[in-house]
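User: My collaborator and I are trying to settle a disagreement about how two of our proteins should look. Neither of us wants to argue from intuition anymore, so we agreed to look at predicted structures for both before our next call. Could you fold the first one, then the second, and keep them clearly separated?

Assistant: That sounds like a sensible way to settle it. I'll keep them separate. The first protein:
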Amino acid sequence: MGRLTTAAVRALSGPALHGDGNTLYLRVSRTGGKSWIQRVVIHGRRHSIGLGGFPTVSLAGARSQALRNRRAIREGRNPLDEKRRADAQSQAALDFGDCTNRTCPWSGKPVQADSLTSYGALVVGFCNPGCRDKFDAAVRHFDQAAARANFS
């Protein structure tokens, strides 16, 4: 049984790391953003696995994913590698021909095939993976802010 409750998670503020138990933690940033991380040991090395931000990922959802990861590790699998493979397959499924833009919105440089992402039903492109990741982080931030506004 975890130590955190949904009400407590909503009320937490200020930068800190709050343990729920069983390798699950809630990280609260200086700006108040909240994200779930799981601290595990895989093949003798410590790792932190990002599970997503609260409230997009609920307390129950984070606990469930943490349990799946612990089971995978116990079975000798590496959930980080599995997550990377799934992300790569998802990325590979995006087709350059479906990209809605031809230049990066930040740099104006041509879009690269390895820097595509999805935004709703659209495929959007960037000049490099760093720009793509910056966009993905911004979208997650705004989605979390919108979700928080709906839960207030």
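The second protein, kept apart from the first:
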Amino acid sequence: METIRSDRFLSLDVLRGIAVACMILVNNQYTGAAFMQLRQGTWNDITFTDMVFPFFIFIVGASFWFFSNKEEGVSGISMVKKVFFRGIKLFVAGLLLNWCLFGLDLEHLRIFGVLQRIAVVYVLGAFVILGLKKDWKIVMAVVFILLSYWGILAFTGGYASIENYIGTKIDRAILGCAHMYQGYGVPFEPEGILSTYPAVATMLLGYLTGMSMSDNRELLLRVKSLFWSGFGCVIMGLMLDSFLPLNKAVWSSSYVLYSAGWAMMVWTLLSYIVDIEGRIKWTFVFNVFGTNAIFAYLLSCLIAPLLYNLVLGGAAISEYATDAMGEILPERTVTFFWSFIVVLLCWGITYLFYRKRIFIKL
């Protein structure tokens, strides 16, 4: 049995690839008639779709463990610069994406989004890690974030609705309604300022999991231990749900524990299959996405609108495909297969980069 400390886990690349594939899938449901688990949950409700983004944030944290390990010996100032400039690049990429997708209109440019949250969480989480250094201090930071966020929400009236949530008021005051997400029917930013705070705890839990996966115990023991730790987090999240509801838009403390717990369990199961049992032939499919994750995500955000708007013979390409499938399949199934087609298109293009060993890093 392998007992050597691992500096790289193929299972983490596979998990990242699965997360990217799922993110593309759930983001490209063609109509509102999607399967329930492929739609975002209602306000205090969680579906499969709501689990994808925290998995990605968790993976960012786990990856930072391996990055910081590789950079051991680099001065603190150099690390801070690397972290900060990577965060800037991700944030700017997200802003440019919003600018392109929503009509090149600066007056209504959405300031935050998926890449922007990743950027801010990455920088803040990395600074916490670099500042505290010790694993027990980072654990205490996670506890502090979750308890303090819980306290903030309790003190300000909770989050029974969008209007009741203090984060909505903060975002409207600082960002302005014109620069917020409009998909909820009212200006509300699901990647807003306040909810970014607990998202840092998700990254830190990913970092601590990466650290634990890399200690000097036998790998099987590490995997078993972390699986049950993840199970414990899921149970704690469910126990808190009765008075601190699971809520992705608010990124509630219960949601942090619940989603990170599932991420731990899925990673450890993948690690058992891939890293311990050595069953790796199938991993190639997800490695293509996993090694070019941000590029694949950006690609999906551009390909889908192109297919919706590119007109050939009087109809958009998306219409041809969905109308043809609609003749023999129910609408929800058509929606699923359409989003799967987008995943395949993105995979095919990303594979060309993978084959040429071109990995785009932001």
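Some points you might bring to the call about the second protein. Residues 10-355 form one domain. Residues 1-6 have pLDDT under 50 and may be disordered.
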